[in-house]
Amino acid sequence: MTDQQQPTYSLRQLVLYFLKLGSTGFGGPVALVGYMHRDLVEKRQWVSDEEYKQGLALAQLAPGPLAAQLGIYIGFVHYRILGATLAGLAFVIPSFIMVVLLGMAYKLYGGLTWMQAVFYGVGAAVIGIIANSSYKLTTKSIGQFNLVSFKQHWLLWLLFIAAAAITFFTQQEQVSLFIAAGLLYMFVKAPPKWLNPSTANSFVLLQMGFWHYEGSALTKIAIFFAKAGAFVFGSGLAIVPFLHAGVVTENHWLTEQQFVDAVAVAMITPGPVVITVGFIGYLVAGFPGASVAALATFLPCYLFTVIPAPYFKKIAGNRSIKAFVDGITAAVVGALVGAVILIAQKSILDVPTALIAVATISALLYIKKMQEPYAIAIAAVLGICIKLFL
Fold first, then answer.
1. Rounded to two decimals, what is the model's pTM?
2. How many CA atoms are closer than 13 Å to the CA of 1, on its beta-carbon side?
3. Confidence label for 347 from pLDDT (cuts 50, 70 and 90)
4. What is the DSSP secondary-structure string of 223-283?
5. Exposure of 30 by Cβ count < 10 A (0-12 exposed, 13-18 middle, 19+ buried)?
6. Residues with Cβ < 8 Å from 162, sequence gap 6 or more?
7. Residue 86 and which of 9, 10, 158, 263 are 20 to 30 A apart at CA?
8. CA–CA separation, 9 and 78 (whole Å)
9. Counting Cβ atoms within 10 Å, is residue 317 exposed (0-12), middle (13-18) or buried (19+)?
């Protein structure tokens, strides 16, 4: 981090900016970090290009949703802990409110024919969006699908394939697999000069006794979502394997269709994709569940940003840490691919949904101006037409 200079903007202006971005910023993490560079570096010059790049590097290196973590770091640049906290809250709260309202509507109208028709098409489009994102994440994190990349990054590809296969066949979250992948790649590529047998991450758990919900249930939600939030590298969609395994397979909080619908809700709302946890939490335990799920997911992201921020230059130059993160990232992306196959196998049940999924992938790949919310809207209309009029 560069030496702290007198900011040219007030804390209020910073908070208002992130409120606006969290309310109107569509397009996923890549688009959101692009908006921040355009608005805060190029146009307003609130932060320098160097400060922005350091924040982006930290967001990519440490676990946490990319866009939210970069926003927290930018808040930290001139206003330290208070700025990081308010920027993060301002960025997340608008989309949290939206998903809670959508959760209320989903509970009220989810059983109606027209709502089922909407999510019939939307669910198929979500499969296509996740598949497309997993392809882009793979090429960005590991390399292109060609012989040269396979030879140069053979160990990363091996970790990627192993994680995809294990996730698909076990249908469970594999935290230990990710850690093992990171350690293996670190020891092979950049072994540390000394081994420090440190303990695993600890999480601050939130217990809330709102209304008539049992504290034990909320504690269980907090533990699960804190663990999930600590292993989101680069893209919010990387959380999908964790959520699917824990929410659908292990705890049976949601059905397969409800889970796909929850991912769809995240796609049609602005702000970080990870905010889908608020929707899931609402379906499981109402507003207390939504609040606990969101706080537990974003708390690790916040801590992993503000704690290392003052020392990041030294951390960023550590080859062993970089190798560890590369190994984990390969396994996480592989798990995402495995989850896509697993979810698609259970969600794509007929020819129309298969065609919608394929068309979504093609549109996102070949139509430059096509964004996820547009694909979702088109799929919703197609779902209504197919289910209600054909």
1. 0.69
2. 21
3. confident
4. HHHHHHHTT-BSSGGGGHHHHIIIIIIIS--S-HHHHHHHHHHHHHSSS-GGGHHHHHHHH
5. middle
6. 177, 181, 331, 334
7. 263
8. 9
9. exposed
